[in-house]
Amino acid sequence: MATPRRSFRALVLAAATLLLAAPVSAQQWLNAEPNPKTNKSSFRAVEEFPDPNDYRTASGAPGPKYWQQRVDYAIKASLDTATHTVTGSERVTYHNNSPDKLEYLWFQLDQNIDDPAVSRTIKDAPALPRQLSEQARRFLAPEPFDGGHKITRVQLVSTRAGKVQKTDVEYVVNGTVMKVPLTTPLLSGREAVVEIDWHFIVPETSRNGRGVREQVKDGWLYEVAQWFPRASVYDDVNGWQTDQFYGTGEFYLNFGSYDVELTVPHDHIVGATGVLLNPVQVLTGTQRQRLAQALASETPKFILAKDEVMTPGSRPPGTQPLTWKFHADSVRDFAWVSSKAYVWDAAGFRYRPGGRVIELHSLYPRDAMPLWDSLSTRAIAQTMRTYGRLAFEYPYPKATNVHGPVFGMEYPMIAFCGARPAADGSYTPGLARALISVTIHEVGHNWFPMIVASDERKWTWMDEGINSFLQYYAEKDWDPAYPSQRGPAKNIVPYMKDPDQMPLMTESDFITGRTFGNNGYGKPAAGLVMLREQVLGPRLFDQAFGQYARRWAFKHPQPADFFRTVDDGAGELLNWFWRGWFYTTYANDQAVTEVDAQPADSLIGTTSRGKNYVRIKIENKGGLVMPVQMDVTFDDGTTERVKLGADVWRRNEQSYTYGFFSDKTVTKVVLDPDEVLADINRDNNVWTKGPPPTS
Ligand SMILES: [Zn+2]
């Protein structure tokens, strides 16, 4: 039906063109001037979006047949501080909710990145700096280190006639993944139980970069992560997601429950994912009393103060190793820390008076004071507030921030942050901000990707980018003048000019190291801030974004699920934005190329609307279509702000002419005056009336 009508319109337009005797072909009237880079319209449907199906709908929601696997873990592990070895035994209950029959299960063995025999590296050897830090020296010329998961038992557990049977299986390790064959295929709706024993040495430096140990004044700090064989994800998009772990692309994991028992030296304090089940066994009476008091208020209180670190009274009587028991539901991973060096403060957070209490904890050695005691727990509370407002309220009962060697890393309910004062206790304002920002960021990861559980190994922007976007608003809430690094459009301009830029829709392990931060974090954060503030406005954006967060909470969204949900929630097809910002490396470079004014009395019947008819011509030089914002200054010294949507480029992506009537004379035009649209070349953003300046 649409085609004949268009043809008719074409004829009318062609006739009108002939009547006006202008040398314009009908073709030119009909077709948009396409994008100067692609020669196609940026507004057309995005071909890269997969077709919607029963699992993922066209509106970006989980479909009627959406499914995901569930994996429950019961783990017992111990830490030997003489050899820095973690020895564990796990029982994995794998629930097959897929419609498929599975012949085997895949597991992730991320510690194997430090196994010299595996050697799955994709990074160039770095050039030697003149001064080599001890850490860098160990990285470049490591002591022989027997890293990696040492698997000592894999058994299938079955129950027949009330009798439990355990069967050895011939598992196969390929780099950082392990295949566990099933003796009988696992049917849809059934579960398989696997038991695995393993041990590994917690590295001091790791290609993994996330779970390491460090010796500080008061002893070793252990940050234990990627530490147990974790089931790979089997989903409707990848089948088995067995992408190898190269150290960059992170972790795609299943939801489930965890019962974890950690046996550590008597003098250690343990922090972990999940709620502590046996405080009576592992804390002193005083500590339990202080904890109850601390949780009653949002003002942090010490559970174990600086002067009490490593004193006999800070631990229950005895000398034998203690077993700390934790339980967590609906989490996709489990991490823990252990040290005798920890100071411990805590507070309680409530979204509303009388509401449920969320435990906030901070663990840090005395080396991290004074700084951590004044900022860490407060920064966790800030994260609860801002992310709770923009995404959803924190559903877990607890959040812990831990100081140690890892600069910044996230796990469900527990985050690692490395910002540390100088040895004399002094610190710069920048370091204090690093603690605030990294804490917000890592705790913020509970929302993305710990709960809105995207495929991190492939799509960095879906967790790091969205999280950096929310981090920006949490920083603003902390202090409206906070000098945020990621979020403001002008901070991404250097990257938008970088010839090595790669599209955001590049899988994590293809992104080159130098550009990784801008690609994974900076550009998506700046883009979403632009979308919220300049394209949709906060009200519409927040509704659409909140919809995405809530509908994919505890599920596995893919990129198109995000794009489609925002389109759906905002009531607008944002093809131009998703294509331009996520699928290309084109930049916004708008230029004001012509400003002309005609006396309006030459135009019949228009004098009442102003003496002059002004036209401002803007050209798209960068290929990225973006809204237009300009300040127009007049001869009486006044300035008017003009804001136009990106739709001005819909018919012609090469130039747009804006026209208006005015009694005044335009003296100056400035494009993107607030630097909120990441225009990469400001030299062509200004037009000034008058003779060109003499040089
Ligand atoms: Zn992050």
Word description of this protein:
It is built from 14 helices and 31 strands. By secondary structure, the protein is of the alpha+beta class. α9 crosses α11 and α12 crosses α13.
Distance between the termini: 60 Å
Q: Which regions are unreliable across 5 or more consecutive residues at pLDDT < 50? A: 1-31
Largest sheet: 8 strands, mixed
Coarse shape: globular
> Rounded to an integer, what's the Rg over CA atoms?
30 Å
Physical arrangement of strands within the biggest beta sheet:
5-4-8-2-1-14-18-16
Small-molecule binders: zinc ion
Beta-strand segment tally: 31
Number of helices: 14
Work out the helicity level. 10-25%
Quote the average pLDDT: 92
Say what oligomer this is.
single chain
Strand content: 25-35%
Structural class of the secondary structure composition?
alpha+beta
Blueprint (SSEs and pairs):
Blueprint: H1 2-20, H2 26-30, E1 70-80, E2 85-95, E3 102-108, H3 134-140, E4 150-160, E5 163-168, E6 172-174, E7 177-186, E8 191-201, E9 213-216, E10 219-224, E11 230-231, E12 234-235, E13 239-240, E14 256-264, E15 269-272, E16 275-276, H4 279-282, H5 285-295, E17 301-304, E18 322-331, E19 336-339, E20 342-349, E21 358-365, H6 372-390, E22 398-403, E23 408-411, E24 414-417, H7 429-444, H8 446-451, H9 460-478, H10 493-496, H11 516-536, H12 538-551, H13 559-570, H14 575-583, E25 590-599, E26 612-620, E27 628-634, E28 639-644, E29 655-662, E30 666-671, E31 686-688
Parallel strand pairs: 1-14, 21-22, 22-24
Antiparallel strand pairs: 1-2, 2-8, 3-7, 3-11, 4-5, 4-8, 6-7, 9-10, 10-19, 12-13, 14-18, 15-19, 16-18, 17-20, 20-21, 23-24, 25-26, 26-29, 27-28, 27-30, 30-31
Helix pairs in contact: 6-7, 6-9, 7-9, 9-11, 11-12, 12-13
The structure holds zinc ion.
Zinc ion (ZN) binds next to helix 9.
